[in-house]
Amino acid sequence: MKKNEQVEVALKGDVIVKVIAALVVLGIIGFGAYKLVSATSVDIQPSGATLQQLAAKPDGEVQKILVTVDVYTGKYSPYPAVMKKGVPVELTLDPNIRGCYRNIYAPTLGVQATAQLGQNVQYFIPLKIGKYPFSCSMGMGKGLFQVV
Fold it and tell me: In whole angstroms, what separates CA 71 from the centre of its chain?
């Protein structure tokens, strides 16, 4: 085999490896998006409800939770974010959160929020005791809601 042919074969092999790696990455991203969208267990009173609607509870109790990102661990804080079953939650995202961490998804609680100036609050009522993981839009940042 001539030197030029060897170089050409090596380049073709390198391209094939890169194409396979790209397909694997796309498959992983697609599977993560599928798992995020296909969550079936929703344990909330309507997401997107207003504070006035949620405050219809006789004692007017509302749990306020501020979600930030711990720069040392890369996890959302507080970890876990503890809330009481049946008590309305006012979830606020720190507007200083950057990158994919600005979007949080907790499909089993019906929570989907984006941190942006002036629109960082989501209201919901957790109806089932348990631990509910959430993540950023890319699945890198991890957090946990715990309903007691």
Answer: 17
Specify the residue for token string 């979007």.
103
User: In this structure, what CATH number is given to the domain that contains residue 85?
Assistant: 2.60.40.420
Domain that holds residue 18: 1-38
Between 72 and 10, where is the model more confident?
A: 72
Structurally, how many domains does the chain consist of? 2
pTM exceeds 0.85: no
Report in angstroms the alpha-carbon separations of 16 from 23, 45, 113.
11, 50, 39
76-131 residue pLDDT tens:
999 999 999 999 999 888 888 888 898 898 888 888 888 877 677 888 899 999 99
Kindly tell me the burial class for residue 135, based on how many C-beta atoms sit within 10 Å of its own C-beta (0-12, 13-18, 19 or more).
buried
DSSP 38-100: T-----EEPTT--HHHHTTSTT---EEEEEEE-TTT--EESSSEEE-TTS-EEEEE-TT--GG
DSSP 135: E
Q: Which amino acid, one-letter code, is at 91? A: L
Cα(141)–Cα(74) distance, rounded to whole angstroms? Answer: 6
- 55 and 74 in a single domain? The answer is yes
